[in-house]
Fold this protein.
Amino acid sequence: MDILLNNESLIRLSCFVGVLLVMIFLERIMPYRPNKASKKTRWLANLGLVALDTLAVRFLIPVLPAAFALFLEEHQWGLFYLLHISSLVTFLLTIVLLDLMVYGQHVLFHYQPLLWRLHKVHHTDTNLDATSGVRFHPVEILLSVLLKLGVVAILGAPAAGVIAFEVLLNATALFNHSNIKLPKNFDKLLRLFVVTPDMHRVHHSIIPQETNNNFGFNLPWWDRLFKTYKAQPQKGHLNMTIGLKEYPDPKALDLETLLLVPFHHKGT
């Protein structure tokens, strides 16, 4: 476990870069929607945000979820230890329950006005691709890590499960934001197990009734369970408009502007 924890950053970075490169390649050979915004501006902003997010977490959060989980393991603290659940079950439950937390957090960030100010940075992207999956304001990422630490503490989640969840969440976020076209029958089958690009694209519609659906990032079950699932956008994937009405110009959404979005008084 020490080896796994000591190499957590390398494992996560390797998986992130690997999946990102695969998705960029697939977007070139099997794109779905035409690109209507400058990739240079968007990619600099999106990848700049993930760099700032990483630095913010490393310097401002004293302990990361995986290391905290290892501490809990050493002291046998948390719900899983009280219930004496097997290691395999706790591993799987950690992934599922942390994913449920992310779903709930996502819903909260949409409906709580102050939190929406942070989260709408993610929704200002007018042209989805894999890099959109990392377009989050640093303050939102910090709050997310703190929430994750709280859930890990309550559960007594194993470090291996926490690391596996982090890797899966990053990989699926890149996948379901990607601009790739999957065969309809394959997409229909796949979205029974994981959030697909077509499923998540609905969530980025400019129409509020569609934006406030399909909150899942990894597992698709929560949207169906809590009745926030919408199968398709009303205008179709090729005709739908992505983004927010108050931020129509992608050229104006550079890294500096995105960092200041929560302090603007546009929209709600």
